[in-house]
Amino acid sequence: MDLALTLALMLAVGFVAQWLAWRVKLPAILFLLLAGLVMGPLTGWIHPDRIFGPTLFPMVSLAVALILFEGSMTLRLGELRGIGRAVRGLVSYGAVAAMLLLAAAVHWIAGLEWELALLFGALTCVTGPTVITPMLRTLRPNAKIANALRWEGIVIDPLGALFAVLVFEAILSREQGHSLGVFALTVLCGIAIGCVGAWLLAFVLRRHLIPEYLQNFGAMAVVLGAFTSSNALTHESGLLAVTIMGIVIGNLRGVHIDDIMDFKENLSTLLVSVLFIVLAARLSWPLPDGTLLTGIWVFLAAQFVARPLSVLVATVGSALSWRERALVAYVSPRGIVAAAVSALFAIKLESLHVNGAEQLVPLVFILIIGTVLLQSGTARPLARWLKVAEPEPHGVLVYGSDPVARTVARALADADFRVLVADDDWDGIRAARMAGLNTFFGNPTSQHADHHLDLTGLGRLLAMSTRREMNSLACVHYRQEFGRDQVFRLRNLHPEEQNGRQAFSGNLVGHALFGEDMTHARFAGLLTDGWRLKSTRLTDTFDWPQFIEQYGSGAVLLFAVDGGGSLRIAAGRRLPDPKPGWLVIALVPPDGTQAA
Predict the structure, then answer these.
(1) φ/ψ of residue 177, rounded to 5
(2) Could you give the CA distance from residue 405 to residue 337 in angstroms, rounded to a whole number?
(3) Which of 7, 296, 386, 503 is the most buried (most CB within 10 A)?
(4) CA–CA separation, 440 vs 463, rounded Å?
(5) Which of the four pLDDT bands, split at 50, 70 and 90, describes residue 570?
């Protein structure tokens, strides 16, 4: 097949795999690996070694370097103090226990030498945000479990990669007859080059020596320069260099890296989509005799022995109950670091004719596919059985903390819905806290919010801030999380007040709250004039027409809670039709006066 056509096909298939993962809320790596297996060994459409030839190893190396750098930047050392005892255990002695148990399993089951078994253990003790986050969306455990699993993935991803690189360097030194001094020199060179690269990037960013539109380009050049320079000085130290560089640059103060992280995240998505198809396509099929069965046994040992024992060790004395510890012990999908780094290491180790290196990638891939498939299909029922699952996501995220947003949030909280008020206005957030509301101080669309904003039990967004552009940004951001039909915003301008230049594209807005004529300014004005939110349970003797008769035709229906406890939101032209037994929340005038 023509090279250009092959690349275009892999990009298209990678996009479809990423989209499908988003639709079904499963980790994308599962569909990418399956696509690679179909396109490679099962059908023979692509042959990576034949297509890319001698450029395959450098291409995979550079891609893995960028992926590791992007993942390492997410580790904030200052945040480790506040992650809780359970997570500290999971990413420290719990991770060491998991690595040793996995190494023992693959040594005794698959017959790998101890050096290669330790490398397998270092690679596969790592989860990560890219696999944990989609699973948590469907699993929906309680807040303690969700936070423990999410923070474990964030912290252990770069730490596990760093440890795997160190084990790999030790194996190379032994295979090539190097002394302990050469190994130490390799490690020191990688650390030094990584620190120098981070300092250089921080220097040019702090002093604005390059324009913003070139910062992403420059960062990528520095990362790849550090990777190749470190490899040139001491063999195979480049991955350690970029991992250290990412950790250092992510923890330096005064360095604005948000745009770089966004760029690296998008670039990593592209690289991962192509890379995993290529790596999976390199597998031979059928697998060597006994490899599939061996991989299944290793997966079972990892799932039902290594993970439970390591979690048991890591969570002793923590605040997690035995039910919560049981679910944490069950959920541990492997992801990007395990697949990408194992494939890169295997290519190098096979070139050195290391015994058993050819089994490394199939065993890792079987473990990845097995954990993702099993846990995605069974973790939610297990969480329900253990009684640690959150109810259906009927809660509401309110963006905004001014009096309008606080009044609406208070009414929903009084109706027994979980409500979280999020804003970066400290005065408003402080007032919301004083009103007894749960709050998040910060921009709810930021990367900080991605890591810290607990969306457990939340399924709708009400964008009600006074900032029109930020409301639209929040709608776009949370439309991917909650779905287009669950994202609403309170107008800041009346339709008649905005012309073509002021109007946002339909893709940038959510459903208009509380009717087409309601704006934030009008709502605030009514509250100032004495209007109030009234919650009333309708009955056969006091139905909605009688409610209107008592409070006036100007009363504005905001929400209705039906007999099943579902929240119905008045938005645009979709107004609920309240029935007896429903709870209605309406904005009513003082003394039954009519709206202006």
Answers:
(1) 75, 20
(2) 42
(3) 386
(4) 14
(5) confident
Give the DSSP H or E segment for 363. helix 360-386
Please give the backbone phi and psi of residue 74, each rounded to the nearest 5 degrees, phi first. Answer: -80, -10
Provide the mean pLDDT of the chain.
81
Q: What tokens were used for 70?
A: 């992007």
Name the phi and psi angles at 403, rounded to 5: -55, -35
Q: Which amino acid is at 284?
A: S
Is pLDDT of 253 > 80? Answer: no
DSSP string, 170-195: HHHHHHTT--HHHHHHHHHHHHHHHH
**What residue spans of 234-257 are helical by DSSP H?**
238-251
Q: List, in sequence order, every residue forming a beta bridge with 586; answer none if it has no partner.
A: 534, 557
Q: What string of DSSP letters covers 466-531?
A: S-HHHHHHHHHHHHHHH-GGGEEE-BSS-GGG--TTTPPPGGG--EEBT-TT-BHHHHHHHHHTT-
Euclidean distance between CA atoms 569 and 575, whole angstroms? 7
pLDDT digit string, tens, across residues 43-81: 888 888 888 888 877 888 888 788 778 777 766 666 555
Query: What CATH code would you report for 3-183+268-386?
Result: 1.20.1530.20
The mean per-residue pLDDT over the stretch 209-232 comes to 87
| Whole-number Å distance between alpha carbons of 259 and 265 | 10
Q: What is the dihedral of CA 62, 371, 109, 311, to 10 degrees?
A: 100
What the block records as the tokens of 281 is: 């396509």
Pairing state between β 419-423 and 567-569: unpaired
CATH code of the domain occupying 395-592: 3.40.50.720
**Hey, is 355 helix, strand or coil?**
coil
